[in-house]
Amino acid sequence: MQTIRITKEFKFEMAHALKGYDGLCRNIHGHSYELLVTIAGVPVQDKNSVKLGMVMDFGDLKKIVRKSIVDDFDHALVLNRESADDFNPDIEMFGRTILVDYQPTSENMLIDFVSRLKNHLPENIKLHHLLLRETVTSYAEWFADDNE
């Protein structure tokens, strides 16, 4: 059996601020993020399966990523929980705020995304690679092989 990788791309808008950072990113600002999710597995060989020849249906992968990540983070403000004293969550514009236990850098967000996805993928599917593009010229990557 041959292992095949498939990738699905996602786009979402998100704002964040880096508490304590020594540059402009300490201020609330936003990005148009692109997330690429690559999984690996063996294509279905069962001739009676409607998924014959697929590692995983792209639509099923889309549902998992949207439910686990995109639906939460799209058009949200993401802040380190330690920043919670710096804003009033009762103000309407802060209604979609996510407080995380980490500095919301692309690198740390990828670590969070990995844990969110691994719990929802079928047993026979391996999360292989994530790429999170923050700007046109900047991105972070996570590879399973680097983390085994």
Structure overview:
The chain has 148 residues and is of the alpha/beta class. The protein is built from two helices and six strands; from the N terminus they run E-E-H-E-E-H-E-E. The protein has helices spanning 58-73, 106-118, and strands spanning 4-16, 29-41, 76-80, 97-100, 126-135, 138-143. The radius of gyration is 17 Å and the shape is elongated.
What's this model, at a glance?
The protein contains 2 helices and 6 strands, in the order E-E-H-E-E-H-E-E. It has helices spanning 58-73, 106-118, and strands at residues 4-16, 29-41, 76-80, 97-100, 126-135, 138-143.
Average pLDDT, to the nearest integer?
A: 93
Strand content: 25-35%
CATH superfamily: 6-pyruvoyl tetrahydropterin synthase/QueD
What is the rounded distance between the termini?
A: 22 Å
Query: Structural class of the helix and strand makeup?
Result: alpha/beta
Low-confidence stretches: none
CATH class: Alpha Beta
Shape: elongated
Counted up, domains total 1
How many runs of DSSP E, i.e. beta strands? 6
Largest sheet, strands/sense/barrel:
6 strands, mixed
**Counting H and I runs of at least 4 residues, what is the number of helices?**
2
CATH architecture: 2-Layer Sandwich
User: Approximately how much helix is present in the residues?
Assistant: 10-25%
- Widest beta sheet: strand line-up: 4-3-1-2-5-6
What integer value in Å does the Rg equal? 17 Å
**Helix and strand succession?**
EEHEEHEE
